Known about the structure:
Layout: E1 7-10, E2 14-19, E3 32-37, H1 39-49, E4 54-61, H2 64-76, E5 78-79, E6 83-86, E7 93-96, E8 106-109, H3 126-131, E9 134-138, H4 147-180, H5 182-186, H6 190-198, E10 209-213, H7 230-238, E11 243-247, H8 248-255, H9 260-269, E12 274-278, E13 284-288, E14 293-296, H10 309-323, H11 327-342, H12 354-363
Parallel strand pairs: 1-4, 1-9, 2-7, 4-5, 4-6, 9-10, 10-11, 11-12
Antiparallel strand pairs: 2-3, 7-8, 12-13, 13-14
Helix pairs in contact: 1-10, 4-6, 8-9, 10-11, 11-12
Amino acid sequence: MPEPYDVITMGRIGVDLYPLDIGVPLARVETFGKFLGGSPTNVAVAAARLGRRTAVITRTGRDAFGEYLHQELRGFGVDDRWVTEVEAYPTPVTFCEIFPPDDFPLYFYRQPKAPDLEIHPSEVDLDAVRDARIFWMTGTGLSAEPSRAATLTALRARSESARGESARSDSALSASARSEGARNASARSDSARRESARSEDPAREPRTATVFDLDWRPMFWDGGDHSSVAPARYREALAHATVAVGNIDECEIATGEREPHAAARALLAAGVELAVVKQGPKGVLAVHRDGSTADVEPLPVEVVNGLGAGDAFGGALCHGLLAGWDIGRIMRYANAAGAIVASRIACSSAMPFPDEVDRALAEGAVTADPTYGPSGAAS
Length: 379
């Protein structure tokens, strides 16, 4: 049986064309850098940079930009076996403007339709999705068919498999308890027994999380900010997720709540085990169903481009979940990863390595890195 992936992400991909001129309107920009883009794809890159085995499920156009994205994915160590071509549509391109510290307008060119919204349920390798330690999907994937059906099919496959494994584990544990006798059975905790049952195959580590990145992009939805269907689609997906992560606006779409603690409680009530509410300059709030919480301030940083910070945060969140860290440590680590990327122009090529995150945490701030040139890549 193939080794399960640490992280499989599903959804948006494209080419980012970012200006190499800071503080200049797009109409006046003369020089651009070309980068791999798309939030879930960047999350896979970020996790790979931190040493995790990752893959992405998505689609590109059958064109030169699609070829470029395959090259970049392989270069970053992300498995591209489930990145397929759609002949009818071009690979998307995204431009941005860079006005630090907090104004980064995005311009998406995804017409007449983005190939990554043409993922069909029959094309998803459900065995790989079920076995992945973390499966990461986004709100954008719910915005149109057939991507919506494919995303929900993947989510259901994970949650149904988890329920089946739990039932089989409970049955096996019950039989084991009867054979061992009441005294021996009572000496072992339920959690220890479950871990033992999951570890019968030493080559297969247990699933860790199904993550819903709320990723609210109103321009991708019919009705935009006033979409009447988005909240219902979000609730449907939340029922199958174990972790939800999003900013205040995204939490409001999913739950109707803007106050961070209320939003976290609403996400838990919707079915997840861990709610992560990103608050920008106010830091991040994480609340777990077991009652543990973490309210972590951001790491000081001179922002250059904040667009990739959330993706770096996501990759680091996956890394911390896989490592089994407590939520406070995970949030501090993810905050540091995000701050590092915010100090650079690019997204994918700016994702930090472990030593960079460790250094930022040790120093208590992110300092400008002289080895990074204007392209955001190491020079």
